[in-house]
Amino acid sequence: MTAAWLAALGGGVLIGTAAVLLMAFEGHILGASGILGNAIRHPAQRWRWGVLAGLVATGALARLCGAAVPEAFSHIGWERLVVSGLLIGFGTALANGCTSGHGVCGLGNRSGRSLVAVAIFMAVAVATVLVTRLEGGAA
Q1: What letter would DSSP give residue 67?
Q2: Are residues 58 and 115 in the same domain?
Q3: d(CA 107, CA 86)
Q4: Among 48, 68, 88, where does a domain finish?
Q5: What's the angle, vertex CA 53, arms to CA 52 and CA 57, rounded to 5?
Q6: Which of 10, 53, 83, 108 registers the highest number of CB atoms within 10 A of its CB?
Q7: In terms of domains, do 91 and 76 share one?
Q8: Is residue 13 domain-shared with residue 59, that is, in the same domain?
């Protein structure tokens, strides 16, 4: 259990550091969904592709260093992942941002809109875990 909270702490420090550096060097908020959407719409803005490459490379590096895929993810089929990804994309469009944009940067900037968005994200997450556990799943 000790390794789990250390990994979470390390991940939080890395995300926070990345958010501060992106704001300091580029003047942009680290909102992953917005960065992805705008990278597709404006491919000439190379900094967006750099951020996205960094996100993917960090995950790949963690895996190469021995980080395990969570057990709950190893039994999920690609169809469920696609549906989940589409629902997340719809949710981020509806909320005009994602957990990184609202949770890390928006709350840090004392945004009321981000506070409401994060409260909704967290309520839905708690409800999802509760329903999953009541159905006998491993959330």
Answers
A1: P
A2: no
A3: 25
A4: 68
A5: 120
A6: 108
A7: yes
A8: yes
Domain boundaries, position 90? 72-139
Tokens of 135: 């159905």
30, 97 contact by CB (below 8 A): no
* Alpha carbon distance 47, 34 (integer Å): 13
pTM comes to 0.71
End position of a domain, from candidates 68, 85, 105: 68
Rounded Cα distance, 1 and 116, in Å: 31
Q: Give yes or no: residues 62 and 13 share one domain.
A: yes
Q: Which amino acid is at 38?
A: N
CA dihedral of residues 41, 124, 68, 135 (deg, nearest 10)? -130
Gap between the Cα atoms of 118 and 101, Å rounded:
10
Alpha carbon distance 18, 88 (integer Å)? 22
Same domain, 51 and 112: no
Residues 87 and 137 in one domain: yes
